[in-house]
Amino acid sequence: MNKTASFFQHPIFQEGECRISGGTVVFSRHGIPLLLLPRDKAVALRTIRLYLPQTRIGKVSVLLLRLLVHLRLLWLLPRVPIASSTSDAGSTSGYLVCNPVHGVRLIRVIKTEDGFVIEKIAERANASPIESEYRLLQRLSNRAYVPLVHDWKETDSLVAFRMPSYGQAPACLNIGSILHAWETCAEVCAEDSSFLQKLRPYFPDGFWQQFSKKRFRKALVHGDFVPWNIRTTASNDLMCVDWEDAEEDGIAGFDFVYFIIQQAICVFRCPQEKLATVLKEVLQPNSTLLRQYHVAEGGGGKFNAYGWTFEEAVQLVLAYRAFRKM
After folding, report:
1. What span, in angstroms and rounded, lies between the C-alpha atoms of 237 and 320?
2. End-to-end Cα separation, the chain, in angstroms
3. CA distances from 68 to 28, 90, 91, 136, 324 (A)
4. Ramachandran quadrant class, 247 (left: phi over 0; alpha: psi -120 to 50; beta: rest)
5. Close Cβ partners of 220 (under 8 Å, ≥ 6 residues apart)
6. Helix, strand, coil percentages, rounded to 5, for the chain
7. In terms of Cα–Cα distance, which of 247, 240, 257 is closest to 195?
8. If you average pLDDT over residues 297-311, what whole number do you get?
9. Are 162 and 150 in contact (CB under 8 A)?
10. Considering the entire predicted model, what is its pTM?
11. Which of 160, 185, 196, 204 has the most other CB atoms within 10 Å of its CB?
């Protein structure tokens, strides 16, 4: 049995609401299903919108998929390879399949009378990230740029919750205004920060001895604050999604530098020894890199207020990436 067929044997697809229609098209990457697209044109396009690749080949693939949907040529792609999946129960749902390293996790697009909603689904054996995210978002329900969640569900094979479906964010973002809403007036010494203590084993030799005495403002930290995790609401407001790695007891400024450094590493393949230089260049007033890094305006003054150097900021993000095993 190949990888694709084996994937659909998972118990999660035996659940009534998650049974895949026999007409569902499978778009795979390296033999692993990535997008499951129904016949419904609107749902298929909304599902493709969930996939925001940063590589050139990925972006081209998205354009081709959209073209196939508009031309009604999705039938050129393979369909769900299980003979028993003949039900039309899932014909109006689309799915984005998340990284299989963390077990089977799905983001489902559901068409309702009032529009679209998103359902985040995880297999029961690896439910912790989804459950933690749901509980966190419940606690943060009154915070700016934080989505509302509802309809928690548990069965023997899965857990799931729902949230609104959002559009894509504008090309340039005023990230400072978002992060300011998550900062507090309280301060913490680095050595007393639970967030930084988690990263301590991943710092280079000698780094912590000097850094541990610095003081920072406390802040809610998103944990994966990047352009592709920022969306727009129907009223054109901004909303941040994917809170699985959030920290309520974080430090102000972390998401700010992560936003730039993560793009430098993942999108532009910048070597580690040049990250501090790139960070400095992006934050210069009227920098030519602002639009490339989806930043609406230079943030050099904002960065300086956080109380660390460009080199320290890079080490902090690299330690965080090692902590998350990215």
Report:
1. 29
2. 30
3. 15, 20, 18, 38, 36
4. beta
5. 140, 143, 182, 183, 246, 247, 248, 250
6. 40, 25, 40
7. 247
8. 82
9. yes
10. 0.90
11. 196
The predicted-structure confidence for 91-118, as pLDDT tens digits, reads as follows: 678 999 987 666 789 999 998 888 899 9
Mean pLDDT of 197-201: 96
Cα 149–chain centre separation: 16
Among residues 308, 302, 283, 303, the alpha carbon closest in space to that of 293 is found at: 283
- The residues pairing with 251 across neighbouring beta strands, listed in sequence order, are 218
H or E stretch covering 168? strand 167-168
Using alpha carbons only, how large is the chain's radius of gyration in Å? 21
Matching residue, tokens 């990925």:
58
CA distance 82 to 225: 38
Q: Rounded to an integer, what distance in angstroms lies between the CA atom of residue 228 and that of residue 213? A: 34
Residue 69: both structure tokens together: 């949907």
Q: CA 177, CA 299: separation in Å to the nearest integer? A: 11
Query: Torsion angle, CA of 265/269/272/276, rounded to 10 degrees?
Result: -70
Contact 32, 3 (CB under 8 A): yes
Q: Where are the alpha helices (DSSP H) in 25-127?
A: 41-48, 56-70
Q: Whole-angstrom Cα distance, residue 7 to residue 108?
A: 16
CA distance 154 to 42: 28
> How buried is residue 91: exposed, middle or buried, by Cβ count under 10 Å (0-12/13-18/19+)?
middle
Say if CB 290 and CB 268 are below 8 A apart: no
Helix ranges (DSSP H) in the chain: 3-7, 41-48, 56-70, 128-139, 175-180, 194-199, 207-211, 254-266, 275-282, 300-305, 310-323
Name beta bridge partners: 232.
Answer: 167, 238
